[in-house]
Specification:
There is one protein chain. The protein is α/β, with parallel strands linked by helices and 318 residues long. It is built from ten helices and eleven strands. The chain has a six-stranded parallel beta sheet with strand order 2-1-3-4-5-9, sandwiched between helices. It has a three-stranded mixed beta sheet with strand order 6-8-10. A two-stranded parallel sheet has the order 7-11. α5 links the parallel β4 and β5. α2 packs parallel to α4. It starts with 13 loop residues before the first strand and ends in a 5-residue tail after the last helix. The model has no long low-confidence stretch (mean pLDDT 96). The protein binds NADPH dihydro-nicotinamide-adenine-dinucleotide phosphate and the ligand C[C@H]1O[C@H](OP(=O)(O)OP(=O)(O)OC[C@H]2O[C@@H](n3cnc4c(=O)[nH]c(N)nc43)[C@H](O)[C@@H]2O)[C@@H](O)[C@@H](O)C1=O. NADPH dihydro-nicotinamide-adenine-dinucleotide phosphate (NDP) binds next to α1 and β6.
Length: 318
C-alpha cells in the first residue's frame, strides 16, 4: 500500500459530482469544514452526467483538479430489483463519462465510490477487499454491483496504463441527512423512519416491515463516510479499493426496534414475508482503512437520533 505524496491543496478545484445527494452533500460539508474553498458543483438538471458530450464540455471548461464521484443511480432492494436496466446502464454511463473525461482533462486525482454489494453473496465475513470477484453476486442487486465493479476496474486500468491517480472507496450501508425517504425505492433505514413517523402521527397501530428481519447489515453515518472519503483523497493512493464500514452489524429486526424507539412509535411490527431479504449478511473488513489511521465516530443510536431530528425539521418541508 502506498500513501500518497501529493498534497491536496486547500484552494484546489474539487468537483463533487452528486452534491445534492446523501453522500455528496456530506462530502461538501466535510470539505468546507476542513477549509476547502474551491468546490465545483452542478445539479443533475445543470449537468446530466449520462450525457458524454456535456461531461466533456464541462471538464474542458472547468478543468477541475480533483474529482469525487458521488453521483449515481441509487436505491434500496426493491428499486434495484425492479429497475435493473436503469441501475446497470445509468451507473455505467455516469462513471465512464466522468472517469474518462477526468483523465483526459488532466484531473490530478479522482475518487470513485462503489458499494459493499460488489462482494459475492456468500463472501467470508467480515469481507476483505480480496473477496471481490470470488463468487456469484446477490441477485437483487447484481446489475448495480456489476456497474460498480466496472468502476473499480476502470480506476485500476487507468492507474496501470496511464499512471493516473484514481482510487476507489467501498462504503457499507449509509444513512443520515439528505437521505432518500421514498416509501418503496429507498433503503431500509430511511424507509422505516418515515413509516414509523407517519404511523405515530396518524395513530396507526401497526407498521409493515419487509422480509424476515433476520438479515444482518452494517450501518455507517454519512458524516463518518464523508470524513473517510476526504481522508482517502488526502492520504491514499494505490490500486486496491478500500472498504469503509463501522465494523458493527445489526439484524433488520434489531434495526426496526431501534428506529421505532427513536421515533417514538408505540404500535406493533408486522413482517411482510413476500418481500425479499437480499443478502443474508455483509459485514465488511475495514482493517485496511483502520491501519491507515482512520476510524468511525458516530454510533448507530446517536446517528439515528440526529437523522430523525433532521427528518422532522427539514425533510417534511419538502
Ligand atoms: N446510500 C447508501 O447506503 C450507499 C451509497 N453508496 C454510494 O455512494 C454514492 C452516492 O450515493 P447516495 O448519496 O446514497 O445517492 P443519492 O441518490 O442520495 O445521490 C445521488 C446523487 O447523484 C445525482 N445524479 C444521479 N444521476 C445523475 C445524472 N445522470 N447526472 C447528474 N447527477 C446525477 C442525483 O441527483 P438527482 O437526485 O437530481 O438525480 C443525486 O444528487 C453512490 O455511488 C452509491 O453507490 C455506497 C454504499 C451505500
Ligand atoms: C446499500 C445497498 O442497498 C441495497 O441492499 P440492501 O442492503 O439489501 O438494502 P435495503 O436497505 O433496501 O434492505 C436491507 C434489508 O432491509 C429489509 N427491509 C425491511 N423493511 C424495508 C423497507 O421498508 N425498505 C427497504 N428498502 N428494505 C426493508 C430488506 O428486505 C432487506 O433485507 C442494494 O440494493 C445495494 O444498492 C446496496 O449497495
Amino acid at each position: 500500500m502506498t500513501v500518497t505524496d501529493a498534497v491536496v491543496e486547500k484552494s484546489g478545484k474539487i468537483f463533487v459530482a452528486g452534491h445534492r445527494g446523501l453522500v455528496g452533500s456530506a462530502v461538501v460539508r466535510r470539505l468546507r469544514s476542513l477549509g476547502y474553498t474551491n468546490l465545483i458543483l452542478r445539479s443533475h438538471s445543470e449537468l446530466d452526467l449520462t450525457n458524454q458530450s456535456a461531461v466533456k464540455t464541462f471538464f474542458s471548461i472547468e478543468k477541475p483538479q480533483y474529482v469525487i464521484i458521488a453521483a449515481a443511480k441509487v436505491g434500496g432492494i426493491h428499486a434495484n430489483n425492479t429497475y435493473p436496466a436503469d441501475f446497470i446502464t445509468i451507473n455505467l454511463q455516469i462513471q465512464t463519462n466522468v472517469i474518462d473525461s477526468a483523465y483526459r482533462y488532466a484531473v490530478k486525482k479522482l475518487l470513485f465510490l462503489g458499494s459493499s454489494c460488489i462482494y459475492p453473496k456468500h463472501a467470508p465475513q467480515p469481507i476483505p477487499e480480496s473477496a471481490l470477484l470470488t463468487g456469484p453476486l446477490e441477485p437483487t442487486n447484481e446489475w448495480y454491483a456489476i456497474a460498480k465493479i466496472a468502476g473499480i476496474k476502470m480506476c485500476q486500468a487507468y492507474r496501470i496504463q496511464y499512471k493516473w491517480d484514481a482510487i476507489s472507496a467501498m462504503p457499507t450501508n449509509l444513512y443520515g441527512p439528505n437521505d432518500n425517504f421514498h416509501p418503496e425505492n429507498s433503503h431500509v433505514l430511511p424507509a422505516l423512519m418515515r413509516r414509523f413517523h407517519e404511523a405515530k402521527v396518524s395513530g396507526a397501530k401497526e407498521v409493515v416491515v419487509w422480509g424476515s428481519g433476520s438479515p444482518l447489515r452494517e450501518f455507517l453515518h454519512v458524516d463518518d463516510l464523508a470524513d473517510a472519503v476526504v481522508f482517502l483523497l488526502e492520504n491514499y493512493s494505490d490500486l486496491g479499493h478500500v472498504n469503509v464500514g463501522s465494523g458493527k452489524e445489526v439484524s433488520i429486526k434489531e434495526l426496526a426496534e431501534l428506529v421505532k424507539e427513536v421515533v417514538g412509535f408505540e404500535g406493533e411490527l408486522v413482517w411482510d414475508s413476500s418481500k425479499p431479504d437480499g443478502t443474508p449478511r455483509k459485514l465488511m473488513d475495514s482493517s485496511t482503512l483502520a491501519n491507515l489511521g482512520w476510524e468511525p465516530k458516530i454510533s448507530l443510536r446517536d446517528g439515528l437520533v440526529g437523522t430523525y431530528e433532521w427528518y422532522v425539521t427539514k425533510q417534511q418541508d419538502k
